[in-house]
Amino acid sequence: MLGLPVDEKHKQCKSKKTHLIVAGGLIGLISLWYLSTTFFTGVIFSKVPKNSNLCPLFDPIAPESFHKDNSTVLSILFDETYRNKSIDNLSGAIQIDTQISDDLVDVPEAPQFWAKFEKFHEYLEHTFPLVYEKLEIERINTYGLLYRWNGSSSDLKPVLLMAHQDTVPVQKDTISDWSYPPFSGHYDGDFIYGRGAADCKNVVIAILETLELLISQDYQPQRSILVAFGFDEESSGYIGASKIAQHLEDTLGPDSLYAIIDEGDGLKVDDLTKTIVAVPGTGEKGYIDIEVELSTPGGHSSIPPDHTSIGIMSQLAYLIEKDPYDPILTEKNPTLSYYQCLAAHDPKKNIDSKFKKTILKAAFNHHANKKLIKYITQNRFTRYLIGTSQALDIIKGGEKSNALPEVTRLLVNHRVAIESTNDEIKRHFIKRVIKVATKHHIAVKAFGVYVHGKPNNPAGEFVITESGGLPPAPPTPLNDKVWQYLSGVTRHVFEDLVFPDLDYPIVTSPAIMTGNTDTRHYWNLTRNIFRYSPLFSNGLMNNNIHSVDEKLKFDNHLQLHAFFYEYLQAIDTKAADN
Ligand SMILES: *[C@@H]1O[C@H](CO)[C@@H](O)[C@H](O)[C@H]1NC(C)=O
Ligand SMILES: *[C@@H]1O[C@H](CO)[C@@H](O)[C@H](O)[C@H]1NC(C)=O
Ligand SMILES: *[C@@H]1O[C@H](CO)[C@@H](O)[C@H](O)[C@H]1NC(C)=O
Ligand SMILES: *[C@@H]1O[C@H](CO)[C@@H](O)[C@H](O)[C@H]1NC(C)=O
Ligand SMILES: *[C@@H]1O[C@H](CO)[C@@H](O)[C@H](O)[C@H]1NC(C)=O
Ligand SMILES: [Zn+2]
């Protein structure tokens, strides 16, 4: 397994020590003394880095329009007439079924399946007449939507806001468990219910409401505004987002966008500091499914071998689970920056001072690193923010009670650590298969190549294949102008408007997204990718996303809308560029 960089240094020190003792002599002893003092002072006296360098806290940033007249953004958040209209907008969008499943067929081959998105498009056009009159709209692969509002200044890179039109399906046998029918878009005076309410028709509607409002005010941006809505995000985005991204790359070229904001986490109360923090997703783990198929000779089950293919596969399964990946936490992982930001600011001074030092030293001090890892891995929900996870998700084998199973299959899903690579996971997987194969004289063909034994091996063979491979996402740069504006506008919206009585600053901390979003297809277009839906939905356990009673507090919807309204105007200046 991968060692931590701090680990490596530690090991080197030790092996040098041993070597020098064997060599003996004065020089050796002096070197030994030198090495050990640097090592131990390193542990005990290493300096805690300055907070301001580690995680700068930027001032709130409001657009100029706000200083002239703050009434629009206040009415988004607090005007009842506006709220009522917005409830209708989102409710109507939820009422149109855009469920998709896996195993999708592309639009030209299955036009009937996708036709329901036509209704959704008609709804958007009817609800946002100004957007449809004023902006250029392209339909990519029929149902992908790309809106373009050209800015007056071509020096400024366009900003891209994203969301997806599709939702996960409602499972038929759960319909009776819903408080309100999943496609009713019911509003109970506080929450709006239904499939897509929080993932993520709310983002689609908040973006379009923002544009509709800006157009109605004769706003003219300097920086071009692009909006992209895919339609198969819940099935990896190969039919929708991937084609929109390709189109953008073909027309605008690589690295041509200012920033991308797609669905993601928002604001929450953090457990350690007990304060509200904003957590844009600045990284994603990698993903790879590895399937292994074992074929062995069949036969009658009255004269079985000692181990059938099911038994041998079980040995492999056992071996895999017995050997989980070690957690690893380096500066590459936004999770470390997350804890560092909390520790650096800790606005209410709630973090134990010893633990705070541990966090601040965890990037370069082996002992501190181990302690922080221990803390993070104690919690089931945070454990896999660091390190690679593996899950035995599918196993199939056997046909009949009196026949030996000729073929058994096992699929293992991996979410790959930021510090690792999919190739490393594949190599490790092969090693474990070979270990089992050797015991049973079975050949192994891994990713098209025989790595153990030969074809037509009499005892059978393992065939290892991969699918769904995606490397860890390139990390979003931190502490640049784009980051400054994102966190500055967040502070403005949530400190000045949403929580005016807050007596501490809202810290924006980078974070890792546990899932993947459509941004996976957009990596070439900018490094500044944020999976971020700034709304404060604390204590709601993710609004039951993908589950029964998916819902969203309507105040949250308006917060997101207000954020987009202020953000688009705030970044409409050269000063927001790096
Ligand atoms: C909005 O503007 C009014 C008038 O200038 C001012 O009194 C009020 O404090 C402002 N509200 C906020 C939240 O900034
Ligand atoms: C908003 O809708 C609610 C519920 O339908 C209604 O009671 C209220 O009067 C409406 N408010 C305004 C200002 O239209
Ligand atoms: C949707 O929201 C926009 C912007 O607030 C508003 O102009 C429009 O009337 C709303 N549409 C409906 C159907 O409520
Ligand atoms: C907007 O900008 C794009 C890209 O530069 C260009 O192709 C398009 O013609 C422009 N549209 C208008 C209406 O100027
Ligand atoms: C991104 O650019 C690289 C190098 O030009 C290319 O190989 C790759 O296919 C591009 N990725 C996507 C998702 O288009
Ligand atoms: Zn989503």
UniProtKB/TrEMBL annotation:
Its placement in the membrane is given as: Single-pass membrane protein
| Keyword terms, alphabetized | Carboxypeptidase, Glycoprotein, Hydrolase, Isopeptide bond, Membrane, Metal-binding, Protease, Transmembrane, Transmembrane helix, Ubl conjugation, Zinc
The GO biological-process annotations, alphabetized, read as:
proteolysis involved in protein catabolic process
Catalytic machinery residues: D166, E233 (proton acceptor)
Q: Where in the cell is it found?
A: Membrane
> Residues that bind Zn(2+) 1, according to the entry?
D199, E234, H546
- Chain residues that bind Zn(2+) 2: H164, D199, D262
Main location per UniProt? membrane
Database matches in Pfam families: M20_dimer, Peptidase_M20
GO CC list: fungal-type vacuole lumen; membrane
The keyword Metal-binding appears for this protein: yes
The Peptidase M20 dimerisation domain, residue ranges: 282-437
A single MF term (Gene Ontology): metal ion binding
Entry's transmembrane regions: 20-45
Task: Tell me its cofactors.
Answer: Zn(2+)
Q: Which family does it belong to?
A: Belongs to the peptidase M20A family.
Spell out the protein name for this chain: Peptidase M20 dimerisation domain-containing protein
